[in-house]
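Researcher: Next entry in the queue.
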Amino acid sequence: MKRVKKFVFLTLATALLVAPTASFADSTIIDPEDGVGIVADNPNMQNEGSSMLRSARAADMQGNKVSVLGGSLWTTWSGNGTSFKANYYHGSKTHMCTARNDTGYKLSSRWVSKGYTATSPWVSQSLYGNRVFANTK
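Model: Structure for this entry, 137 residues:
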């Protein structure tokens, strides 16, 4: 009986310690090579009728701008839903951006002067695990 009580106590203690920590987890990703990033999964890819949505949508879709390293980072998804790219604007530092899918394939923009938007080339998107990154000098 003591073993069962001890097991239940440890299980509850672990659950109570882990749950609050996980709920405040940050969605930013730090990569030593690519900089600071965010998740860039296409919202339409998670819908059941995504193939119908992708075929019906002709225009590219812009994600929300997120403040990263003092600039604005956002994702653009292609109208056909097969690829995405990173965009990063910084008003006071030289900067670049990178788009990376779940397979690890990535393409980066060139370094861009302050006041201009850096844009990566298009990268084929995965169903999940797409990321965009920003970096500054």
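Model: The chain has a mean pLDDT of 81.
Researcher: Noted, moving on.
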